[in-house]
Every structure is written in C-alpha cells, then in structure tokens.
Amino acid sequence: MNEPASRLPSTFRLIVTGGGTGGHTYPALTAVRALQARLAAEGRALDVLWIGTPDGLEARVAPAEGIAFTTVATGKIRRSANPLKMISPANVRDMARVPLGVAQARKIVSDFRPDVVLATGGYVAVPAGLAARMCKRPLVLHEQTVRLGLANRKLAGSAARIAVSSESTLPLLPGDVRSAAVVTGNPVRPEVLTGHADKAVAALGLDGFDRRLPTLYVTGGAQGAQQINNVIRDALSWLLERANVVHQCGPANVEALRASASALPPHLAGRYYLTGFVGPELPDVLALADVVVSRSGAGTLAELTALGKPAVFVPLASAAGNEQAHNAQHLEDAGAAVALTGEITAARLQEALGPLLTDPARRAGMAEAARVHGRPDAADRLVDVLLSAASSG
C-alpha cells in the first residue's frame, strides 16, 4: 500500500537506462512522461537522469525532452549460433569495457541516489542495472518483446520487479524470477491513440480515395523496408481494385516506386498515396487505416493492438533473437494478425490480405482479437510498478 502523498518526499528521483533503438527508447520516454504527470497531480516533482550510449537514439531523444543525460562505457556482444564465433576480437574487446561501464554507472547511481532505476533493454542497461544492485537501489526491468532480451536476461536476478508486455512471457521466465514479474503491456505514446481519419484525408489530400473501400496502411518503418516495398509494388493493381493504399516507403525509395506506379489507370492511381515518411499525422493515418501491413517490432505491436487494428506482419528476419517472428506468431496464434515469414511474394500477400479487404466481418473479428491484446494503459501500469518498487525498496 502506498504512503499518503503528504508523507512522501516532494521530489521523486528516477534513473532511466536503455536505448540504442526506438524499441527500447520510446517506452522509457512514455513511462517518464506518465510518471511526471502522476507526480504533478500529487504536487510532486520528478528528477530524472537517463544513462545511455552517445550514439544511440536516446542521446537525441532524452535531451530534446529536457531530460538530463549521461553515458557509460558499454560492450556490444555480437551474437552467433556458432559459440566459437562469439569469441571474436571485437567481442573480447567490448566485453573488456563492461567492468569500466559498471564502475562508471556505480558512481552515477551512488551520487544521484534514485528512488528506483528503470531499465528497458539494450547493452547500456547492463552496467546501470548491475550498479543499481550494488548500490541497493530498486531495479525495475521492462521487456517489450515476448521473450526476454539479452540485457534483461542478464539483469533478471537483480530486479525488484520485471514488467512484461504479454501474458505469454510469464511461462518463458526462469522459475526463480517469475514471482517478480507483472504484466503491464508496452507503453504507447498517448498521441497515437487520439487520431482522426478525416484529418488524415485533409492533411494528405486524399481526395482520390474511395471511402466506400477499406484503407490499407503499409509501412516499413522510418527508412522503409525493401522487402515490403517490392511486394506491394508487385501486388499494387490488385490491391487498388480492393482498397485505398497509404504507402510509407522510406525517403530513398519514393522515386522508384512512383515510376513503377505511373502506369496505373487514373481511377486506381487516385487511391494510392505514396510517401517517404509519415510524421505528426501518423495518429490520423492509423485512425484512417482499416488494415495495416508492417514489420512486427514490439512498439508497432503495442500501437496496433491498443488501437485494435487488423494487421499482416512481415517480420524482419535479422531481428535480434528472431524476436519479430515470435511477436508476429504470438498474435497470429490469437487470431489477432497474420504472420508472413519466409519468402514473401505478391501471391502470398494477396492470399493474406484478400479476406481482410473483402470481408468486413473478418476484419472486425481480427480487430476485436487485436484489441484484447492491446494495453492502452500500459504506461500507467508501469508507473504503478515503479512507485510500488520505490516504496518497498
């Protein structure tokens, strides 16, 4: 049971560690914002320090959000199925940096004296997480994917709480840490949940769209995905007979795709909106979308399930630990998505999308199954865990 606000210190001190990619960075940022709002409602302040890497996404995101930022030495372990390849000169050199990083992190944690340390994964989380244990500060891990990532596996035994994104993670945890686990979901940026379809039509000038047809949103992430772009290009005429398409293809791919779409008849061409990047209008595009084709990173899954969007996932085969394939399969097994793995062809994409584009009842069923797995309140749940760990730490 939490203490009354009057007995709590007026400033809550939090160290956040994790990053390298958006998958580790944005859930942490969303949790920080939610914690800040919770404390402000109680008349309290948040003092937060982010421990990251100098070249990771967090090095740009944290300072832009007004969050104090510092770095420690890290060692990136290059994984291989062959144990002998793990003992590479680069791995040996990087492993030697870990003790230095731990020493640096221990000084930072000792000086800052956080009420709790939140680690969201990535190589930098290991030294900071170990330092939390050495300094006897409560450590909360957050795992975005179905299976624990490498950093969180290393830190699990040191954690006061392990916040996971899915019920499916619980049986995969080592028995000795399962009692520390709590299902929170993966924090979703609140703005993603507030889109309006009509705003997307106006902002993007989608006057050629036939609103009687479903709208398909295709995305390969910020840089685009060549694999997805190629299969959409090959199936484009078929798709446009059945749907409007918003295709976010990555800035480097626009010209080639525009050239290949130039032969479309006018009535189909008007249903195709090609863009390199979708920015602030993303929530509105997601609101407009009836079906989504995308990679299956943890952040994407969290957003699409929170919104209840039927999806066809094309997992990134090179993702660490094959996590994207696990993510996609988990939702396919629940009837909440379709997972396309292996060789992806236009014919396979058409087979997957056909029933969703032509059968509103099928779409509605998958949307409901996705919504069951969505946790739009994940950030608030994670804040509960942080406050609980701090009060009992």
From TrEMBL:
Gene that this polypeptide is encoded by: murG_2
Its membrane topology: Peripheral membrane protein
Domain Glycosyltransferase family 28 N-terminal, chain residue ranges per copy: 15-163
Function of the molecule: Cell wall formation. Catalyzes the transfer of a GlcNAc subunit on undecaprenyl-pyrophosphoryl-MurNAc-pentapeptide (lipid intermediate I) to form undecaprenyl-pyrophosphoryl-MurNAc-(pentapeptide)GlcNAc (lipid intermediate II).
InterPro entries linked to this entry: GlcNAc_MurG, Glyco_trans_28_C, GlycoTrans_28_N
Family statement: Belongs to the glycosyltransferase 28 family. MurG subfamily.
CDD domains: GT28_MurG (cd03785)
EC number, UniProt record: 2.4.1.227
Keyword tRNA processing part of the UniProt annotation: no
Domain Glycosyl transferase family 28 C-terminal intervals: 215-382
Pathway(s) annotated for this protein in UniProt: Cell wall biogenesis; peptidoglycan biosynthesis
Pfam families: Glyco_tran_28_C, Glyco_transf_28
Keywords: Cell cycle, Cell division, Cell membrane, Cell shape, Cell wall biogenesis/degradation, Glycosyltransferase, Membrane, Peptidoglycan synthesis, Transferase
Residues that hold UDP-N-acetyl-alpha-D-glucosamine according to the record: T21, G22, G23, R189, Q324
Name by which UniProt lists this protein: UDP-N-acetylglucosamine--N-acetylmuramyl-(pentapeptide) pyrophosphoryl-undecaprenol N-acetylglucosamine transferase
Localization of this protein: Cell membrane
Catalyzed reaction equations: di-trans,octa-cis-undecaprenyl diphospho-N-acetyl-alpha-D-muramoyl-L-alanyl-D-glutamyl-meso-2,6-diaminopimeloyl-D-alanyl-D-alanine + UDP-N-acetyl-alpha-D-glucosamine = di-trans,octa-cis-undecaprenyl diphospho-[N-acetyl-alpha-D-glucosaminyl-(1->4)]-N-acetyl-alpha-D-muramoyl-L-alanyl-D-glutamyl-meso-2,6-diaminopimeloyl-D-alanyl-D-alanine + UDP + H(+)
Entry annotated with the keyword Membrane: yes
